[in-house]
Amino acid sequence: MQQINICKKEKEQLLLYLPEINMSDRDKQIVQKYMTEKSTYKNIGEMYGISGERVRQILIKFNRKVRAAYLKKKREEERS
To answer: Residue 27 falls within a domain, yes or no?
Structure first.
């Protein structure tokens, strides 16, 4: 399993979108825990009773949703 590599500045920007994203509270907690703590997928998975692979999938889902939210916001700004 390959870890997603995100620099600190990018993490801060991504976390700003967290409240807007349509995900379960548990998934949002997992994303926030991954972004704020230096922990592995496996360790986070053990905390939530899921596999490390499932943690990776949740992060991928978050990434897709953040990208969509960012593009939507950008289009709205262009229209204004």
So the answer is: yes
